[in-house]
Amino acid sequence: MQEDTIEGFHCNVQAPFEKAGAEIRMTDAKVDFVFPEVPFPSNKIFATMGAQAIEAMVVHHHTLLRKSAIGELFPSDDAVFAHVTHKTAEFFIEALGGAQDFSTQYGHPALRERHFRFLIDEKARDIWLMLYKKTLKDIAFPTQHLEEFWNWIEALSIRMINRRTTFETPKRYPFASIAHEFTPKG
User: Fold this and answer.
1) What pLDDT is recorded for position 1?
2) CA nearest to 159, candidates 33, 28, 57, 4
3) C-alpha triplet 55, 118, 159: angle, nearest 5°
4) Can you give the residue ranges of every domain in the chain?
5) Is residue 134 a contact partner of residue 67, using CB atoms and an 8 Å limit?
6) Architecture of domain 40-179
7) What tens digit of pLDDT does each residue of 116-165 get?
8) Cα gap 95→89, rounded to integer Å
9) Model confidence band, residue 31 (pLDDT cutoffs 50, 70, 90)
């Protein structure tokens, strides 16, 4: 495959088709489903929460994940876990409008590729996402930004799936289907 740059984006461009030759040749593997668009949030969330609260949110989420059925994805060593969690927090802080510490230090997030050494299937994605929903409730995430944040992480979470267990399109969880869970009881 060749790679072209269009307006700052890298695109794979197909090479011309080659007919059979004297030797066997391989082609690149293909994605087995179309990833949805990901609506990255505005910087309003960062302006409201700040870096410290975003990092606390990520720590809370990762702590829940560590105790979940997909806890083996996280290091058992507390110091390594703290480092990994901080790295993830830097990604969230940058994506939400804060300092560019993540990309400066680690480059493009490439979530699917970065997580490829771990099995992340549809079930793992659902656990990750549902524990984010719990996190948002637990930390009293700013209600005026819930829909914007959820729409981002819900679509983004599909891009972390790196092993498919079904040909079905991954289940979607639009904000409208969970909004009632954030309505105060009373």
Assistant:
1) 41
2) 33
3) 65
4) 40-179
5) no
6) Orthogonal Bundle (1.10)
7) 778 889 999 999 999 999 999 999 999 999 999 999 999 999 988 888 88
8) 10
9) low
Which is nearest to 50 in space by CA: 87, 96, 14?
A: 96
Average pLDDT over residues 5-29: 59
pLDDT beyond 50 at 8: no
Asked whether the beta carbons of 46 and 54 are under 8 A apart, the reply is yes
Kindly list the distances between the CA atom of residue 130 and the CA atoms of 44, 49, 123, 127, in Å, as whole numbers in the listed order: 23, 21, 10, 5
Query: Which among 84, 115, 88 is positioned nearest to 102, based on CA atoms?
Result: 88
Tell me the C-alpha distance between 137 and 131, whole Å: 10
**Distance in angstroms (rounded) separating the CA atoms of residues 85 and 64:** 12
Q: How far apart are CA 74 and CA 97, in angstroms?
A: 26
Structure tokens at 163: 């092993």
